[in-house]
Design brief:
The structure holds two protein chains of two kinds. In chain A, α6 packs antiparallel against α8 and α6 packs parallel to α12 (322-351). Chain A is built from twelve helices and two strands. Chain A has a two-stranded antiparallel ribbon. By secondary structure, chain A is mainly alpha-helical. Chain A has helices at 3-38, 54-64, 75-92, 115-123, 126-136, 140-171, 176-186, 200-223, 235-238, 248-273, 289-314, 322-351, and strands at 101-102, 105-106. The radius of gyration of chain A is 21 Å and the shape is globular. In chain B, the strands form two sheets. Chain B has a three-stranded antiparallel beta sheet with strand order 2-3-5. Chain B is elongated, with a radius of gyration of 28 Å. By secondary structure, chain B is α+β, with helices and mostly antiparallel strands. Chain B has a domain at 54-175: Alpha-Beta Plaits. The chains are: A mainly alpha, B alpha+beta. Chains A and B meet through α1 of A and α2 of B.
Chain lengths: 352, 176
């Protein structure tokens, strides 16, 4: 390994970590503003211009609060859980290509050849943070939240994994950069307006791709515990769920983890279905560093748009009942995703 | 006896739920958009915008002592308000008026008149019971302080809030 690779990788890690963490804090601010606007309120608008310094004030508040540890908790796991809740979401971003190239350096931290498998392997660790928090708190509401979370995540991971298989049937490679390359040549998976316009098979493939996208998006909602599926932290039923016994920065870490998971989920959705950093008409970073920066900006603009959709859905839909959630996951999305794979395979075999 | 509530039979379009979800999303987006464009005006930015000009005449804010057109403190320290006050927020220490005063015929005057605004419940009974039209509930509502002692309104503060009341009965002027 040469030192150039190590130095650029370290720089990318620091930059992405900084970017993700600041995005998380502003996602919390955006969530409060968007929810307020949807409910005809104003939301935080006092700290700084339009309330933009609110995340900084929130951070100081959370850091300065008393870090209270209840007496009956299992201390080791109680401390471990918040860290486990944050880590997977942040690690997952390592394999996501967030830009083309900048000064000849590819804008992905680790371009591993098992890309999507790495994403699923690490993202599924996220459940440990919640389950451990629920169990270590030694209290009934967090415990119920932890149980719900584990069953929900296991159920929806199936449809999550099955929903992306059609994409890799087309791409023929698990690398996430190849997925983006494929979409640059053939058009975004949910809107293939680039490449061969006359090929009817390509247009036929769009239907299963959209089904795949819907299943994947819903499964991501369930995986990140966002509102139609936020049973692990149902405030009205569980007094906050798995994070009930936490306070101060440990409580904030759970929120950080949830929003980081949301950002990572959006980033993966953008990479898989919306062409990653690609936007029609904008060349990649080999034409100059300005285009490299624009590509990164395009990627994060797409991520931000999807985060808005996350919030929009959260403040529109009510929560599912637990049996409805299970029925939906096992009886509908699992089957739809499974049948979808066969449809794509059939179309592909007929096309050749 | 148990009653079985009949569930509505949904057709396939309703059972798909997606049209309903899209309709819901459209509604929330409409609210979001209207708020973003400033078409929704619901929230009043409190310290900058105030409701004061719209307060009704019968609004019951802070109780206050008033002076009349002659500049006399109208309270005669009869202590009726002190007795009627449900939370016992009022404390009065009466004193004699010196005989060379213009209003020496008036029975007494309050040497001290304290209203504990932590206790006050803004019921307006003091105003109702007052035989002298001396205490009124004014429209002040933002009563704040850092200590309990600060929250007690003394006579000077009460007179400052009350100011001069015009159009009250000047029954003591005939007796001077």
């Amino acid at each position: 390994m040469d030192s150039f690779l190590i130095i650029t990788s370290l720089l990318k890690i620091v930059a992405i970590l900084f970017l993700i963490l600041s995005m998380v804090s502003y996602a919390v601010y955006a969530e409060r503003r968007v929810s307020a606007f949807i409910q005809d309120r104003l939301g935080p608008n006092r700290v700084g211009p339009a309330g933009l310094f609110q995340p900084i004030a929130d951070m100081f508040k959370l850091l300065l609060k008393e870090d209270f540890t209840p007496r009956n908790v299992n201390t080791f796991y109680y401390w471990l859980a918040p860290c486990l809740a944050v880590m997977p979401a942040i690690i997952t971003i390592a394999v996501v290509p967030f830009g083309s190239t900048l000064f000849g350096v590819p804008m992905v931290i680790a371009d591993v050849n098992v890309g999507i498998l790495f994403v699923f392997a690490i993202a599924s660790l996220g459940v440990y943070g919640i389950v451990l928090a629920g169990w270590a708190s030694n209290s009934k509401y967090p415990f119920l939240g932890g149980i719900r979370s584990s069953s929900q995540m296991i159920s929806y991971e199936l449809s999550l994994g099955l929903a992306v298989i059609p994409i890799f049937l087309l791409v023929g490679n698990l690398r996430l950069t190849s997925v983006v390359r494929y979409q640059i040549e053939h058009g975004w998976f949910i809107a293939p307006f680039i490449g061969d316009w006359t090929n009817p098979w390509k247009w036929l493939l769009t239907i299963p791709m959209i089904i795949s996208f819907i299943v994947f998006a819903i499964a991501i909602f369930a995986e990140t515990n966002r509102l139609p599926f936020d049973l692990p932290e149902a405030e009205q039923e569980l007094a906050g769920g798995y994070n009930t016994e936490y306070s101060s920065m440990k409580f904030a870490l759970f929120f950080l983890g949830e929003y980081a998971a949301m950002i990572t989920g959006s980033a993966i959705m953008v990479t898989l279905f919306f062409g990653g950093w690609h936007f029609p008409g904008i060349p990649d970073g080999s034409r100059g560093w300005v285009f490299g920066l624009i590509n990164i900006a395009v990627f994060f603009a797409k991520v931000a748009a999807l985060i808005f959709v996350f919030m929009w859905v959260r403040w529109t839909l009510p929560r599912f009942r637990y049996d409805q959630l299970m029925r939906l996951g096992w009886l509908f999305f699992f089957e739809i995703a499974l049948v979808n794979i066969f449809i794509v395979a059939a179309i592909l075999s007929l096309a050749h | 006896m148990s009653v079985t509530v009949p569930r509505p039979k949904l057709n396939w379009r309703e059972r798909l739920y997606l049209p309903a979800i899209v309709a819901g999303l459209a509604i929330t987006f409409k609210h979001f958009k209207n708020m973003l464009l400033g078409r929704t005006k619901v929230t009043m930015q409190y310290p900058e915008q105030k409701w004061d000009s719209s307060l009704p005449d019968y609004y019951r804010g802070a109780p206050a002592l008033v002076r009349d057109e002659d500049g006399r403190v109208r309270c005669v320290a009869c202590q009726l308000c002190e007795f009627i006050c449900p939370p016992r927020a009022i404390k009065i220490i009466p004193d004699e008026i010196p005989s060379n005063d213009r209003f020496a015929k008036v029975e007494k005057y309050p040497e001290e008149f304290d209203i504990d605004m932590i206790r006050c419940i803004f019921c307006g009974m003091c105003e109702e019971v007052c035989p002298e039209q001396a205490i009124f509930l004014r429209k002040d509502y933002a009563i704040t302080g850092f200590t309990r002692a600060e929250m007690v309104h003394h006579k000077e503060k009460l007179l400052e809030i009350g100011g001069v009341m015009h159009g009250v009965v000047l029954k003591w002027n005939e007796k001077k």
